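Support request, priority: normal
Reporter: lab tech (M.K.)
Component: structure prediction queue

Hi team, I submitted a job for Metalloregulator ArsR/SmtB family transcription factor from Sphaerisporangium corydalis yesterday, and the status page still shows it as pending. I've pasted the exact input below so you can check whether something in the sequence is tripping the parser. The sequence length should be 108 residues. Please let me know if I need to resubmit or if it's stuck on your end.
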Amino acid sequence: MCCAPLACEPLNAAEAEELAPLFKAIADPVRLRLLSLIACHEGGEACVCDLTGAFELTGPTISHHLKVLRTAGLIDCERRGTWVYYWVNPGVLERLSAILGPPLPALA
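Reply from support: The job had stalled in the queue. We restarted it manually and it finished. Here are the results:
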């Protein structure tokens, strides 16, 4: 599931194909901010009503960006009554961190 850090060895074609949609999803400033807002929100999840006020964008535009993040697997959501709550998929963020992070020093 996890690739070696980029600093250790090059990605193979299959790994690059699998990771590219994740990086593409967070390459947009709005989506990157949304991901950050959700990840940092108290309790580890955020209602869509907590997210929209941070942007000067319409609700449908915010919904589109959230859908892109969901489709990439970076976030998940659940409808509770009239509101939708979002949380970060920690496994996917750990994977991105592992691929971008430097190799860990060997333990003696």
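The radius of gyration is 16 Å. The first strand starts at residue 45 and ends at 47. Let us know if anything else looks off. Ticket resolved.
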